[in-house]
Design a protein that fits this description.
- This protein is an alpha/beta fold.
- It is built from 13 helices and 14 strands.
- It has a 5-stranded mixed β-sheet, with helices on both faces.
- Strand 8 and strand 9 form a beta hairpin.
- Helix 1 packs across helix 3, helix 10 crosses helix 11 and helix 11 packs across helix 12.
- The chain starts with 10 loop residues before the first helix and ends in an 11-residue tail after the last helix.
Length: about 400
């Protein structure tokens, strides 16, 4: 009899199928097994097993009881993502930390920000996370048992599998190999899931639930207080041996550049476009020209975005700085074109609202290479804010964590 039993799916194929089911689930408010089957190249039996698995893990719940139809029989059971399971997303920026409470359906329940300094100790950071996590749960009358996990998004080289921050790009005083995952787990009285990821990778992960990312290569540029380039293959971030996915902002663009990056190299993409460096370029202009370029600047806006607006208004010095930035971005993106051959570049973060002038200048730099001169190079900006990207990416990572265990149960 055992020889006649159907062989189980290889684990990698099973995980792929379940991940695809999860992606489709994430794009729908309510669904039936029949609706999932439509358009999916996966057997109905596999979809049914996936639904049974996600029901058992409380990722999804029945959304309503089946009712009788007019011609007899019962309507098919409808399901939905579990709105009664929650995660806390901790997004760490250079001068602030944001705490967001979300459910599995990616609904934002509550959020707030608190100021942080670059000299914040690791012990104080953990204390803040514990205090504010308890506070946000209490304020929203949510029991600890309904908290599935905590997602920490920060800058640096991060081993997402072990939950170690190998190098923090924000808190230099923390040292190396910081066990954030294990330390946060110890703060809670029961077992919870804790994930730690680079902000570029987490913001890019929101695309894993986007059907348009399926089957495509996408280079995601996260542009905010730092810069990261995360590569997506078929909606997933490749797991690399040294966990540097998201840190391609540290590729060296100009070997003879004067700007020294926090990673120790000179001429990194991130260092070359750092807001402080662009601000200093403008400050170095002769007095009258400097006065003209700074007219209207209130120091609250990202100076790089301000320069692009000044450029569009016709300021010649702003145009020169924009051309300088375009040369840097175009060189980096040209390298990505040769190394990864993406179907598209997607821009994310506060410094991603590129004007047509700037985008065309970047494309000119890319197409300067004869091998790329005739290629279509789509550059798209997603409408989501940085906060929305962090929220959606955090939920996506948490949902996918159900598929990352080596002992994923048979169902």
């Amino acid at each position: 009899m055992d020889m006649m039993r159907k062989a189980a799916l290889p684990r990698d194929l099973k995980s792929h199928n379940y991940r695809e089911v999860l992606r489709v689930i994430g794009a729908q408010k309510q669904f039936t097994i029949a609706q999932l089957s439509d358009g999916m190249d996966i057997s109905r039996q596999t979809i049914t097993k996936a639904i049974e698995y996600f029901l058992g893990e409380e990722v999804i719940t029945p959304s309503r009881k089946s009712e009788s139809t007019r011609v007899g029989g019962r309507k098919p059971q409808e399901y939905m993502l579990n709105t009664g399971k929650y995660i806390i997303a901790v997004s760490v920026y250079a001068r602030k930390t944001r705490i967001a409470l979300l459910n599995f359906s990616c609904e934002l329940i509550s959020s707030f920000e608190y100021a942080s300094t670059l000299t914040c100790s690791y012990k104080d950071f953990l204390g803040d996370i514990k205090e504010y996590s308890q506070q946000i749960l209490k304020e929203n009358a949510i029991s600890d048992k309904d908290l599935y996990g905590v997602m920490v998004c920060t800058g640096g080289i991060i081993d997402s599998r072990s939950g170690l921050i190998n190098v923090s790009s924000i808190y230099k005083n923390w040292g190396r190999n910081i066990p954030v995952k294990e330390d946060i787990k110890k703060m809670f009285e029961r077992e919870i899931q804790v994930c730690v990821g680079n902000v570029a990778a987490i913001s890019a992960n929101m695309l894993s639930m986007n059907k348009d990312a399926a089957g495509k290569r996408i280079a995601v540029l996260y542009l905010d207080y730092g810069v990261g380039i995360t590569l997506l293959e078929d909606g997933k971030i490749p797991k690399t041996r040294h966990n540097v996915s998201g840190e391609l902002g540290h590729m060296v663009i100009h070997m003879n550049a004067r700007e020294t990056c926090e990673c120790g190299d000179k001429g990194c993409l991130e260092a070359l476009i750092y807001e402080k460096n662009i601000y200093e370029m403008a400050q170095a202009l002769p007095e009258e020209r400097r006065k003209s370029i700074f007219e209207g600047y209130d120091d609250k806006e990202d100076f790089r975005m301000y320069i692009l607006k000044k450029c569009d208004a016709g300021n010649e010095d702003a145009m020169a700085i924009a051309n300088h930035l375009a040369e840097i971005f175009g060189t980096a993106m040209r390298n990505i074109m040769f190394a990864f051959d993406p179907d598209a570049f997607v821009l994310m973060g506060s410094f991603s609202d590129w004007s047509d002038y700037f985008k065309n200048k970047v494309l000119d730099v890319i197409r300067r290479n004869v091998y790329l001169s005739d290629l279509e190079i789509p550059i798209r900006k997603l409408p989501e804010s940085t906060e929305e990207m962090m929220d959606k990416g955090s939920v996506s990572v948490m949902l996918q964590s159900f598929l990352d265990y080596e002992d994923m149960q048979e169902v």
